[in-house]
Amino acid sequence: MKLSTFIRTAVVAIASLGVLTACNKTEPLTTESATTVLADYYKTNKDICAYLGDFPVSVPTRELSPAITSIMTDGLPARLLALESVALVTRSNGSEASGGQFKVSTPVAKFDLTTEGKALYTMREQEVLGTTGGTKKVARNELCFATRALDSIVKVQEKPVDGKPDRAVITFKLKIEPRGSWGE
After folding, report:
1. Strands (E), the chain
2. 51 pLDDT band (50/70/90 cuts)?
């Protein structure tokens, strides 16, 4: 998976959150009010980060095959390969015991952060879904590799329900800037 695909996936998810925030308004939605809401949202939520676990990360080598990563483009192996392609992580080969009592040796690729990757790896507080419903805040290490900001509103289209402004579709563009030198 290319890093641009990974970023696009993250942007689509965040764009949905921005639309939901903007739709909580009761007055008619205009391009100006959508711009204000989304610009404020992206000022507060500008980082594009990936939770990859604690480094070094081991992945069975069979999961790195093109046949697997072409299907599972948003999985951990594909993300690690994308980050390796821009020198934010390095890979070494090894093996780990698996199989419970049988202790089968499995070939693995061990990914670790490069110097630049370590500079982008930070502890963040995130709101996540709880196991019993609702959300909870957790602190976890994430690789924050880019920032985003509202570039422009392309179109605002209200979707009235029973004649009242209830929903809207906002099409907008984001400006994505890489952190560090990996995007040069």
Report:
1. 47-50, 57-60, 89-98, 104-113, 121-129, 135-161, 164-178
2. confident
User: Could you give the CA distance from residue 52 to residue 78 in angstroms, rounded to a whole number?
Assistant: 11
Q: Place 156 in a pLDDT band, splitting at 50, 70 and 90.
A: confident
Other C-beta atoms closer than 10 Å to the C-beta of 12 total 9
Question: CA 19 to CA 3: how far, in whole Å?
Answer: 24
Q: pTM of this prediction?
A: 0.66
Task: Compute the distance between CA of residue 4 and CA of residue 17 in angstroms, rounded to an integer.
Answer: 20
Tokens of 32: 């100006």
